[in-house]
Amino acid sequence: MSQVITVISGDGIGPEITRATLRALEALQCDLEYEHVDAGLAALERDGELLPEPTLESIRKNGIVLKGPLTTPVGKGFRSVNVSLRRTFDLYANVRPVLSIPGTKARYEDVDIITVRENTEGAYLAADAMVAEDGSRAESKMIITRKGSERVTRYAFDLARREGRRKVTLVHKANILKAVSGLFLDVSREVARDYPDIECEEMIVDATCMKLVMDPHQFDVIVTTNLFGDILSDLCAGLVGGLGLAPGANIGRDAAMFEAVHGSAPDIAGKKIANPCALMLAAAQLLTHIGRNDEAGRLRRAIVATIGAGDRLTPDLGGDGSTESIADAIIERL
């Protein structure tokens, strides 16, 4: 039976890289069907809403989403579309792998790190946020829960065990944020005891940043809270060549969303030079999630081989090709 997935092409370069990614999925012949819906600026212009109800209903029905980058208009009254999707569907685990690919401008070789970030609470919850009328002071509460900490840490350890990883690093700031970060660390320690086969280490977030830059090979799986994970996952992407090669999965109990983590890049939209590899790698994550491991591996290998060969690459990868030319090269290898 074919699997139906919701497809949100997105804004800016989103439609271009989504078309290229769907072409690659079609070449894999993995029996997928697509339900196309809008969100972001495209939905706002057509329906007057950033997240129309038909889009939400499609996600509820299908449970699997492939999403291009979305733009949230700047200004008050517009809540981040990505944050809204994560909260609406309780997509609590943000999973961002980075892998060194020969032929890129990466600063290191043989980096292979997965960052698992709690996606629904922490600093980004911005509970009771307020700004004083005179603009002299702003404040909001950071909220960490036992439930949130337990489930994201357990997801990270289950992921490590499933993929044959050797170590999970618990990243925190419990030396200063003793209550909120301390609770995350305490709960994560409890979870770690259930996985005696996986090495567990603890590391303060600022030390983690330094050690990632100096020697990233010591890391395997990192699990942390929302704000720290947002920063660390981008740092990790920089180690392997940038966000053009950085996919992301947002996992919940009833739904999962797979995306390129870079922005909509309106400055190059329509120029046909956007790199589709991040979204293609996110599609590989999607395939793994639905049990199509062979197809996921084929897609990853074709991407790595194409970049390694310097074959029709986009300008950000050092070539003079286009979105479609790199897609052609990847599809030929499939």
From TrEMBL:
Pfam family, one: Iso_dh
EC main group: oxidoreductase
Keywords assigned: Oxidoreductase
GO biological process, one term: isocitrate metabolic process
Entry keyword Oxidoreductase: yes
EC number: 1.1.1.41
Isopropylmalate dehydrogenase-like domain mapped to chain residues: 4-330
Family: Belongs to the isocitrate and isopropylmalate dehydrogenases family.
Name assigned to this protein: Isocitrate dehydrogenase
